[in-house]
Every structure is written in C-alpha cells, then in structure tokens.
Amino acid sequence: MIKEGWDVSAAISSVRRESRSGRPEENPAVRQASGAAASDLAQIHQPDVNLVVWRRSPNRGIAGVAAVLVNTPGFDACLHGTPAVLGFRLRSVLKRAARERPRARLRFAADLSALVRRFATLTGSTSIHLHLEGIDDDACSLFHVDRRTLRLLTAYHGDGTEWLPEAAVNRAALGAGSNDAICRDRSQIRRLRPFWVGLFKGSAHGDDRFGIVHRSPPIRRRGGRRLLLRLDPSADIVTLHD
C-alpha cells in the first residue's frame, strides 16, 4: 500500500557509510523534510536533507486546465531560458492549449512562473529547463537517483512521484533493474499528492551516495494519466546525463 500522507518519524532514517579506512562510520541521519510554506523548500540546503516537500493545497481552476492538457494528445512543453523568458513562453503555450479557460489558464501560468523563479533562486541558476508533459505510460517506474544537482517535480494531475525513506532502500541494488531488490519494504513507499512540490537532491549534489531514491508511479495498467512538471538547472542538462 502506497502512503500518500507525511509521516515524519518514518521519513527520518539513519544510514551508515564507509570511512576512508573502509570501516563503517555513523553518518548524520539522511532525512526528508516537509512544510506548508514555499519557504520550507530552502531546507534542501541542509546537508542531511535529500528531499523537501511543500505540502500545498490544490487549486480548482488550475486543476481544470491540467485536466484539459493531460487529455490533449501529445501535449509536451519543453522550454528553457531565464525565469522571465519562461514566464512569457508559458503564457503562449497555455493560450494555445487551453483557449476556453482564460482566467484559470493565466493562474496556471502564474503558478508555473512562480515555481520557476523560486527554483532559480534555490539553485542559483540564471537559466532553467522546464518540461511540462502529459504521461500515460510507466516510463521511469524503476527506483533510481537522478543524475542532477537539484530537481523540482510536481504533478498537477494524477499520481505524484513516489520515493523511499533511507531505511527502505538497498542502494547496492540501484541500477540492477529490480524494484523488489531496491525496495526493502514496499509498505514504506511514499507518494506526493497532486500539487505538492518535491525538491529532490540528486547524485550530482555534493555526496553522490545519498541522493533521494524515487520513481514515477506505474499507471499504464489502470489507464492513469499524469501532468508532470519537471524543473532542472539548464547547466545540469548540458553537463549531466540521466
């Protein structure tokens, strides 16, 4: 059973890592943090935090536009530029895709632009790569760590991203192609709710051994659809590869 709520006690877990001598040594708890305010996302800069979740409430108007977009065949907006440039281009993309909902469309564009600006501030990036896409398959359903510094994910429609607290992860199995081997306890799988914002620390951020382990939820079998926003620093796209 996937847990969609937030259990702080279960999200904080101790790990052990190898010292240079090869002997295990205690590492400060690798943990995940959450909050109800956008400012809580800044907790990602704490060295022992590999995921921060902003638990925000859905917006009915934006959700309506998201439902239109996710049911538009082939909807896929991939943009990059400064926050100001992205704000302009997003309004244009949404105008073409959701003409019948002008007020909600502008609200959606404003929400996306606000996330871009906040992400740019948190990452110190002047250029952001934005991908807003409709998804109806099981791509990225294997637990993994992104080869990124920081990545922002939020689902405006459908299931949010799933992730594992450290105690439920077998990192030695990452890359071997088996979720059963990676996940020690399926009851510990967590899932972001729609509109919640997740700021994910990847393998290219400092200590590459403790990026957050996560996946896209499997949806194909039950005919699910998702509208997912993904933000990356443009520099990551140029220099790093998934």
In short:
This protein has six helices and eleven strands. By secondary structure, it is α+β, with helices and mostly antiparallel strands.
Structural overview:
The chain has one domain (30-239): Jelly Rolls, CATH 2.60.120. The protein is 26% helix and 27% strand. The chain contains 6 helices and 11 strands. It has helices spanning 8-11, 60-70, 83-97, 102-123, 179-182, 234-239; strands at residues 12-18, 24-35, 49-54, 76-81, 128-135, 150-157, 162-163, 190-191, 197-201, 214-215, 226-233. α2 packs across α4 (102-123) and α3 (83-97) runs antiparallel to α4. The longest helix has 22 residues, at 102-123. It starts with 7 loop residues before the first helix and ends with a helix. The model is unreliable at 7-28 (pLDDT under 50).
